[in-house]
Amino acid sequence: MFSAPAVRRRGAARRLAAAAVLSGLIATGSIASAGAAAADDGAQHQGGAVATLDGLKTYDQAVLRTNGTSHEIPAGLFEMTVDGGGRLKTYCIDIHNPTQDQAKYLETPWSQTSLGGNKNAGKIRWILEHSYPQVDDLAALAERAGTGPLSEQTAAAGTQVAIWRYSDAADVDAADPAAEQLADWLQRQAKDIAEPKASLSLQPNAVSGKAGERLGPVTVRTGAGQIAVSPPADAAASGIKVTDAAGKPVTSATNGSRLFFDVPEGAEDGSATLSVTATTSVPVGRAFAGVTKSQTQILAGSSESTVSANATATWAKAGPIPALSARKNCAEGGVDITASNKGDAPFTFELVGLEYTIAAGESRTVTVPVAEDQAYDFTITGPDGFQKNFKGVLDCRTTGEPGDETQTLTSQPSPASAGSLSAGLEGDLAETGSSSATPWIAGIAVVMVVIGGAAVLLLRKKRTTTPDE
Questions:
Q1: CA dihedral defined by 132, 133, 135, 137, rounded to 10 degrees?
Q2: How far apart are CA 285 and CA 273, in angstroms?
Q3: Which residue from 31, 120, 287, 332 lies 20 to 30 Å from 12 (Cα-Cα)?
Q4: What is the DSSP letter of 447?
């Protein structure tokens, strides 16, 4: 997912404006037919760990009360396998939504999940820092909390119950008396702690400029000691280098390092991607959101794991030179698509029937409304094969459908619990248990959501700082 794609040539044609069309693709075949220019994975990821959900592994029982009805549900720790190596342990912060078997998860800023609007998010992090598995001396934990003897299963259940009370405002108790006492103690003691920084990110993750310049800077943010920097795949042939501010080629970086794309003066118009990777423990309290619809998780423990981030540069000799990026905007209920233009002519694009022009040297953000829990899949295309794809699921709230609670936390979800409308957009229906109609239903829903919200698209100045990391 994070290997650097080859430099993509867009030809030497000079234009006064680059027309781009954003569309909701309604079938996975549309993505496959887009060609080499769409090689980037469009999932919104600001960097960090990418992992696959293995299921609920250490748990006991809890009782959830909703609408006057009690449901007995499992409560405890999930495990994930990190792409490239490593293991994660997580708790659920999305009790009413089901898990999806073998779902792919991305390390995600709180602001792009339900935690962004939750005044108690910091208390959840305190609970994680002061309970199992961060505290693995269960006898000491039991003594501190004033409970009876705790097993790994009951400690995990009590911790999960305390988290649910803050993440979902859930009316939930642990079935085991000692686990319930632990949950009560954690809830009473919890204090507000700030969101942890990303394990690895690049800011910004898209830059642009003229050939013959050093494009950037792209700043590395990480808690890891040493970062490996990989240049574009065909850097030797194209002459594109990754350098520091002085123009010295770099192959490694640390926190705060500033990276640049050094583009030769005679380079044809094009774009390229650099990748950075490291091995580190992901900070406890980082959120993990599903690429497809699957309940949001929060990190309780990490082995040494592979973390990655990408940044893309676009250049040209003249004309508009756009840089495009996207992120979920939970506060506005949509997806922010940001276009900056480092060229010497306007960059014009059409977004669901509305035309926008970014003047030379300016930047704008368009917020595309997307319904809660809705999959989206947008592609911006331009002349000479230019394309940029953005996809994901907007999952900003914890409210689920009545009756979901009995299927919420199964370690091996049934097709009914795993098959959300978004599943088909990621391709493997055999893994998700969805029906073959899923991608068409999802695509039609995306188109309807975007068309219905077109009249309220927001156009605003891009912030000069990045608030989420």
A1: 90
A2: 29
A3: 31
A4: H
